[in-house]
Amino acid sequence: MRFLFRLIIFCFLFQSCNSNEYKDKLIGNWSLIHGSNEYEFYKDSMVVRSFGQHYTNSWSVENDILHFKVIKQHFSDIDNKEFYLFYKLSDNGDTLYLRNKDETDFNVQFLRIYSAYDYLLKEAKIEVELPIKKDVIKNNNANNIDIFVGYRNDILTSTTLDYRTSDLSEIAREVHMERLSRRYADISDYQFNLIIDQNVKRHQIDSIKTILKKTKITKMFRVYTNTTVDYNKVDWLSDFDWYGIYED
Questions:
Q1: Domains observed in the chain
Q2: Sign of CA dihedral 97, 100, 105, 109
């Protein structure tokens, strides 16, 4: 009888440890890039932002199943609704795949987000290691278009946050649409913010600037980082300002 009791306790503790291990791997911030869903997993709760709604859930993990229970829905009333999703993590733990019980494939893909800067890079689908510069100024310009120059699958890539501007071939159209959204603000009021990887060569940067200047926007603000200006320390849902210098 004593052996059976010990066995039951051991099984309970083993299952609890496994559950905690699975939960620990999920704790953090997750976003459906270019989508309308974001998850924040905490040890004892979970926040969901979906299509303008804001939910607070309790949650647990059982093998490959995520269990949720809505404990608070902001802006409207809701009962304690319970539901579950099947999930799996990528090998590096940075991608969360989800499906419901009626699906066979994991078609929904959430990316782990570490900071506001990381959010931008994953939205642009690019990797950019910024160069370091001690003396920088804050970008106070209101009319900006961010240009990302870095690496996508180890290939040098130039892009913006507009998914249609994958290689700057549509940059003129994007400038036109940006000005149109601001009731055709004067072109002289605009600038490009250049978020360029530290390993990009000067002649490559000059070639990119040549393409950009064809839009008639001539102001170029090169973005840098340093120990004081660390974009990776900005909370993932917070706005932030670029720091750098103006270049020709």
A1: 2-113 (2.40.128.280), 116-247 (no CATH)
A2: negative
